[in-house]
Structures are given as structure tokens and as C-alpha cells.
Fold this protein.
Amino acid sequence: MPAPVDAGRLAQVTLRVGDQKGNSRSLLRSAGLDDFPYTVQWATFPSGPPLLEAVSADAIDLGGVGNTPPLFAAAAGAKIKIIATSKGNVASDALVVLPNSPLRGRDQLRGRKIAVAKGSSAHGQILLTLRAAGLTVDDVELVFLQPSDALGAFKQGSVDAWAIWDPYFSQIQLESGARVIADGQGTANGLSFQVAGTAALADAGRNTAIADYLVRLAKAQRFADGNREQRAQAWSADTGLPIEVTRRATGLGPDLPVPLDDAVIRSEQELADAFVAAKEIPRRFEFAGFVDTRFATQLTAV
């Protein structure tokens, strides 16, 4: 691990951060923690898989994703390390249908079309939901769409169900009265991760900036938990989403930092193995080999 750089050198660093709709950037801004002692260059992605492709290619330095994108990236040999984790309310990891759908539960999914972003946390949730219903991915038709395309397909009835996360979950419930037929309770681990590129971690300046960034983000997550209206207002302002949507999403509870420990690694390994068993990932790998706990001490103090 490179030694930390001093304030003068840190001021010259540009940290390239990948974000998803209204996530880290909005969190930091609403908590007043975006006064970085280095330059932050933001890039927004529709979901976790393309974000991690950019991390592995050294197009960005780090970014936040759900519990499944790191598994697909690791299985492909991506140049990444999982460096921090948080846990959220799994009620918003949901499988939804239109109000007039005949589907009432996960046991009725056989033969149905389900929209989901490939390799996203929702992809993992679908796998676990099907398994809990005694089904496999071979019993349904997965239609791989990014959220913006899935939204249209869902509203038009081109798919029978949509596996999604917030803020899209709250948006589709408020806009279309979508019904939940399954969520992550009892199946999902609710984890999300900050993931950095190996090149960024090997660079002294960027490594120092990443350490500071992670501490700020953890503080911002805790701030959001205690100041939910402020968080909702910032989320709405940053994304253009109606305040009703962001209030609902915020009310379900923010992700909060948790230790990147053996329990987290075991839980992710179990999910990875489930993907291997379903032949969605071609071969088994050790999730622990993609974990780097160098920032654990700083984050424990938050």
C-alpha cells in the first residue's frame, strides 16, 4: 500500500468517481461534505455493471454498486478491489407488476417475462426470488434492460414483471401503482459496495484521496439517516425526480456503513456460488480475493 501524500500533493489529485442516479454525489452534497481537498470528477452510470467496467479499465477510480455487479466483474477477472461496504433496507429490492396483473406471488412466475439489468443487484434478487419459489432462471424469460428502457417496457406491458431498486422502485409505484409480488426480505443481503480499480489503489495520490472520500461518504450516509427530509430534497434537486419519489425512497432508510468483514465475504460468496449453480457465472471464484481492507481502520472510526 502506498504511503499517504501530504496536503500539497493531495490538492493536485483528481479523483474520478462513478455514481448512479442520485447516490453518492447527492449524499455528500446534502451533508455538506463535498468540500474535497482534491478535485472530484463525477461520472454517472445507469447501473453497476457498466460502472465497474469503467473502474476495471481505469477510466474512473472508484464507484458505488450493489451486491451483484462485483461478482460478475470478479468472475470476468476485472482489475478491481472491494474496499468498503454498507447495508440497506431490502424492501426496496423489489419485483413489481402492473396493478391489473394476474400475478400475485413469486410462485406464479413460471413462463413469465421479467425485465432486469444484467449483472445488477436486481439480477441477484431475481435469482434468489426464483430459488425461494422452487424455480430457476430456466423457468422464466429474463429480458435484460437498463432501468430507463425497462421502465418503458414495463409501462407498455411488454414484460410481465420488473426487478428494480430505488429510486426507480418508488417512482414506478407512485407513477403506475405498481404492486410488489416479492422483495428482498428473507432472501437478499442488502449489501452495497465501494469498488476501486487496482491502478488507483497503487497510486499514492489517488489512494490518499480514496481514503478521505470513503470517510466522507460514510459520514454522509449517517447524516442522511438522521436528516431524511434534507436528503430527499437534495436527491430531488440533483436528479429532477419528484420530491414525492425521493421522500418515499428516503423513508425506506438509507444504506449505512458496516464492516467489510468475514460475514460480508461469506454472504457474497454464497450469492456468487448461486450464480455459478444457475450457470449465470461460468466458474467458481473466491470473492475474498477481490477484497481489500486497507481502509478499515479509518472507517471504523466514523
Observations:
- DSSP finds 13 helices and eleven strands in the chain.
